[in-house]
Specification:
It is a single chain. With 29 residues, the chain is mainly alpha-helical. The chain is 79% helix and 0% strand. It contains one helix and no strands. The longest helix is centred in the middle third of the chain and has 23 residues. It starts with 5 loop residues before the first helix and ends with a helix.
């Protein structure tokens, strides 16, 4: 039950989460 805009929101959230996780790894290292 996804609307037209939900894919963009989901993709943006996924990209932001991935970037945040990799940034966190860099900060620890």
């Amino acid at each position: 039950k996804l609307k037209k805009g939900d894919n963009l929101i989901l993709a943006a959230f996924g990209a932001g989460y991935t970037w945040g996780a990799s940034h966190l790894v860099w900060a620890i290292d």
